[in-house]
Amino acid sequence: MSANPPATPERLLGLYRAMRRIRAFENAAEIASQGGVAAWGLAATSTPAKVRGPLHLSTGQEAVSAGVCGNLTRADLLTSTHRGHGHTLAKGADPARMMCELFGRATGYNGGKGGSMHIADFSVGMLGANGVVAAGIPIATGAAHALKVRKLPHIVACFFGDGAANRGPFLEGLNWAQVFKLPVLFVCEDNRISATTPTGPMTAGEGVSARAQALAIPSEKVDGNDVEAVDAAAARLAGEVRAGGGPRFLHAVTYRFKGHVSVDPGTYRDAKEVEAALQNDPLIIARKKLLAYGVAAGGIDAIDQEAEAEIAAAIATADAAPWPKVADAYTDILDTGAGVWQ
Amino acid sequence: MNAPTKIDTMTTAMTYAQAACLALQEAMRADPTVVALGEDLGRGGVFGQYRGLPQEFGPERIIDTPISEANIMGAAVGMALAGLKPVVEMRVIDFALCAMDEIVNQAAKNRYMFGGQGRVPLVARMPIGIWSASAAQHSQSLEAWFAHMPGLVVVTPATPADNYGLLKSALACGDPVIYMEHKELWGMSGEVTAGAAVPLGKANLLRHGDDLTIVTWSRGVSLAAEASEKLAAGGINVDLLDLRTLWPWDQAAVYASAIKTGKVLVVHEAVQVAGFGAEIAASVAENTGAKVRRLGAPRIPVGYAQVLEDESRLSAAKIEAAARNILK
Fold first, then answer.
1. I want to staple A134 with a disulfide (CB 3.0 to 4.6 A). Which of A81, A167, A176, B316 is the partner?
2. What's the number of domains chain B is made of?
3. What is the mean pLDDT of chain A?
4. Domain A9-330 coded CATH 3.40.50.970
5. Which of B71, B101, B247 has its CB closest to that of A173?
6. Would you kindly state where each structural domain of chain A is located, as residue ranges?
7. What does the pLDDT read at residue A1?
8. Which residues of chain A are within 8 Å of residue B110 when distances are taken between CB atoms?
9. Are B160 and B14 in contact (CB under 8 A)?
10. Residue B5: inside a domain
11. b vs e for B292-302, b when ≥16 Cβ sit within 10 Å of the residue's Cβ?
């Protein structure tokens, strides 16, 4: 249906840039979050961190966001998870407004009402990160259902983690999408851990792809750290969805470099496993491929520097941004009964 | 029980179910983005409250769904975000409990948590109440759960006219509405005036009296009216208020009546403990100093056998007795 995008240095450079921006964003947010939340036996610092509360980093998983979103248009829709910065950036959101939201500032995408866990930019079709595992799946099916009823040509990309496959809405949503032949690309971003517990021993059967296939949803499994592989598979599957073939399922196997939240040292994982995963960094893999394509190292370094500078500017913007007003606590709730709070 | 096809008639007698059907039919004719989704809707809904609509609007807009309550409600959130106005049918409120994340964490929170980037204009119909010996999992009245929740409007129509007029307002509201019809009222007949929307948040003062205020809603209304008749025969005159909407509730109307009578009895079919009557009673006491009493069900599941079920049921006799008690 849809031809694979040609594996060219230019395309890979674009994907690399998308990944590098996410990495820079996550690293900067991580630094800004230290001491921000009491968890894992650690107290929050007495001076509030700039990013407060749980910060779920997608460091190491950038290839999935970049590879999938590279095959979406601005008008396509996307639902995300609690680990949603990468999806949001790759869908086209402005990192400065995202960082403002993480900092809880009035100029953030949500006016400081959501923070990291609810990062969203509806203007680029990014319908929100979600604090509840698998909760984006029914929402994605409904958005796709609306696109179908309204006869619009767009599709919905629905990101979720491996842990989501063990929640009921996973079955309900996949079944629904298939029954109504909806334009949804399901993307299982499989980082192999459900919060702090390995997903494998908690999951019966042959895994998420098998569950999709049981509902006759065509499924592909890819190396989620190889952005070209993700890109190629997403292009194929998104093309089939766009052509009206109903839902498709992409199972991208990756690895979460950091803990469940940024202050979680992740010591429950085998150090050797983590060390091996760090060698399998999607950015290292992409860089090697770029060099093999004959792209000059200096050109790649320049992308790195641009990304760092862009995110440094986002941090500076967020640092200087105004706080929400107390009165803002009472807006965006309901029109009916607004003004009556008790 | 087909939806009446003539909608230009001024006033027509119809049932509570037909009244809702008419309101939805009018909304769907006027606005192509209104759709309904839920189990068994293709056959007009299990209570006939969608009868005729599948034939008129087809399966694309009257959507028969799998038995997947979480996805029904979650999909409605996604539909609303992507430009539709979905009417969700949960069949009975007991089944809506399978969709609590989608109602509470998703529908109710979306607008606020994303800073007003999106709106979730959906109407979630979840019939409440005791009916037909249906025991503990098909008989609950859980309106207090939703009234507790920021981000939701809560509506409890008691008559055909209100079921028509409140559903019209709910469909136009723009925010998530929990719309609770009472299962024992489906067959109730009454006059409905075409086009007469009933505003959300406005109580209906059904009787005027200086001795006592009775505040109720849903199934409680007709029973309280019956009790009020009996009280009037004994010289006790009641201000009877049907709240119609629990969030927002008509505090001004309730307080005005409480100040006039000095005594307020709140009546509801739901379990009395932590019921919405507690909120009203406390608010009335805090704001008016009136004497307050509550009448609700004991904190027991609804039983199957008649003798057990009756323990949870409201009745005119129970309301009358509670009224006499507060006047002692």
1. A167
2. 2
3. 95
4. yes
5. B71
6. 9-330
7. 41
8. 128
9. yes
10. no
11. bbbbbbeeeeb
Chain A residues within an 8 Å CB radius of B76: 142
pTM: 0.96
Q: What is the CATH number of the domain that holds B281?
A: 3.40.50.920
Q: Which of B163, B193, B223 is the last residue of a domain?
A: B193
Contact B116 A332 (CB under 8 A): yes
Nearest-by-Cβ selection for B247 from A121, A175, A337 = A337
- Other Cβ atoms within 10 Å of B194 Cβ, number: 16
Nearest to A110 among B70, B73, B114 (CB): B114
Cβ-based contacts of B152 with chain A (< 8 Å): 334
B7 belongs to a structural domain: no
Say yes or no for a CB contact (<8 Å) between A143 and B200: no
User: ipTM more than 0.90?
Assistant: yes
Written as one letter, the residue type at B38 is G
> Min CA distance, A192 vs chain B (Å)?
25
Annotated catalytic, B208?
no
Render pLDDT for B26-58 as a digit per residue (tens, 0 to 9): 999 999 999 999 999 999 999 999 999 999 999
B134, B224: one domain: no
Residue (of B153, B122, B156, B151) closest to B36 by Cα position: B122
The tens digit of pLDDT for each residue in A221-250 reads 999 999 999 999 999 999 999 999 999 999
Closest by CA position to A66, among listed A10, A16, A29? A16
- CA nearest A103: which of A31, A19, A163? A31
Return d(Cα B157, Cα B143) in angstroms, integer: 12
